[in-house]
């Protein structure tokens, strides 16, 4: 159902370097990496649109010039898009302040801020309505995770008021963490110092709390994933293809796999577990691919096995090779008989000779 939020504006933070996703992000910024057949951001844009967002300002920095050719003026998404670039990276808070120059919202209006690397099934409309009803300075989406020791945590009082931003600790006081989607009252954005490097997580939010302003938490347990690491990135693509998270931007029906135009999958190959097969990619007879992202023009030769991995554009995984929990960079060639696993990453263009050898990050 179409939302009735009136003309909500958003800022999308897409300027990070995506270091944890190297080498995938050496040539393509994280928000543009193909995920379930389309650039990652397409899923976020379509979801934001479905909640009534009409205008989005992209806060770009790293590889800034690649965003506008990918999304243009946004008409294809029913959105109006604007691109603002930082001369030097300003951090999350500085980027929001800088991009706000392009907003048309008035001082009391809510503005949605989205991290450009989050897949979330949460109800954005509910979050915005809670923010407006309570006239908060900022309302943060908080997600409840099973293991909060891996994150900083965000405790709230019984009224949902955020009481602190706590660093990572072995004994967290709550399982609620910052989920990377905020509603700011426009005037609060304008109070962030201009042209300075500012972190919302380390400076803006703790500062608002210390000065007694109302910072609210909107907590839920719907689907949520930060695709910042290779394992999480592959999981996100897999979950979208399998239909664990609905996305209006999926280029085909959900199922065991999704194949883009010109992909050639042998009837004697096994492709499953939410694999995305890029345009013109080839999977030969006897190959097995599970839960993976195969980029455009890559080749998986006969008898190779690829599981929970990313194979870059134009890369080749030769006959009989085993690839598990690995990232193969664009145009790399993994010679026959290799075994790559446990997070190993092959840089773009590298050619591993044919041999019976084991590459693993934990051996
Ligand atoms: P890593 O380098 O792997 O940590 O990834 P990242 O660069 O994306 O950093 P992080 O995950 O902490 O960033 C959270 C969000 O803020 C992402 O959507 C980034 O694109 C964005 N971001 C981080 N720093 C900046 C910045 O200086 N400018 C802009 N415009 N966006 C940023």
From TrEMBL:
UniProt key word Iron: no
GO molecular function: transferase activity
Pfam families hit by this protein: GMPPB_C (PF25087), NTP_transferase (PF00483)
Keywords: Transferase
InterPro entries associated with the record: GMPPB_C, Mannose-1P_guanyltransferase, NTP_transferase_dom, Nucleotide-diphossugar_trans
Protein origin, superkingdom: Bacteria
Transferase is among the record's keywords: yes
Protein name: Nucleotidyltransferase
């Amino acid at each position: 159902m179409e939302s009735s939020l009136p003309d909500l504006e958003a800022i999308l933070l897409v300027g990070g370097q995506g270091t944890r996703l190297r080498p995938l992000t050496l040539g393509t910024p994280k928000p543009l990496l193909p995920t379930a057949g389309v650039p990652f951001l397409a899923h976020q844009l379509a979801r934001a649109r479905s909640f009534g967002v009409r205008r989005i300002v992209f806060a770009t920095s790293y590889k800034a010039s690649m965003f506008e050719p990918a999304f243009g003026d946004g008409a294809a998404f029913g959105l109006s898009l604007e691109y603002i670039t930082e001369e030097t990276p300003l951090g999350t808070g500085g980027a929001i302040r800088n991009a706000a120059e392009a907003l048309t919202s008035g001082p009391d209006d809510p503005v949605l801020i989205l991290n450009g690397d989050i897949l979330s099934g949460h109800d954005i409309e509910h979050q915005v309505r809670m923010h407006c009803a309570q006239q908060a300075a900022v309302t943060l989406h908080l997600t409840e995770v099973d293991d909060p020791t891996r994150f900083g945590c965000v405790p709230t009082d019984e009224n949902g008021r955020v009481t602190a931003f706590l660093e990572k600790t072995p004994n967290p006081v709550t399982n609620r963490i910052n989920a990377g989607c905020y509603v700011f009252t426009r005037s609060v954005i304008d109070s962030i110092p201009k042209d300075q490097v500012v972190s919302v997580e380390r400076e803006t939010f703790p500062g608002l709390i210390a000065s007694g302003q109302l910072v609210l938490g909107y907590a839920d347990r719907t689907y949520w994933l930060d695709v910042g690491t290779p394992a999480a990135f592959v999981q996100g693509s897999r979950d979208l293809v399998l239909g664990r998270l609905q996305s209006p931007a999926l280029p085909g029906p959900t199922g065991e796999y999704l194949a883009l135009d010109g992909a050639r999958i042998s009837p004697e190959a096994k492709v499953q577990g939410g694999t995305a097969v890029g345009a013109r990619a080839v999977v030969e007879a006897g190959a097995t691919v599970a839960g993976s992202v195969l980029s455009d023009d890559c080749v998986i030769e006969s008898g190779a096995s690829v599981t929970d991995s990313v194979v870059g554009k134009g890369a080749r995984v030769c006959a009989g090779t085993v690839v598990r929990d690995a990232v193969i960079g664009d145009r790399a060639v993994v010679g026959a008989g290799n075994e790559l696993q446990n997070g190993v990453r092959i840089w773009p263009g590298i050619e591993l000779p044919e041999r019976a050898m084991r590459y693993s990050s934990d051996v």
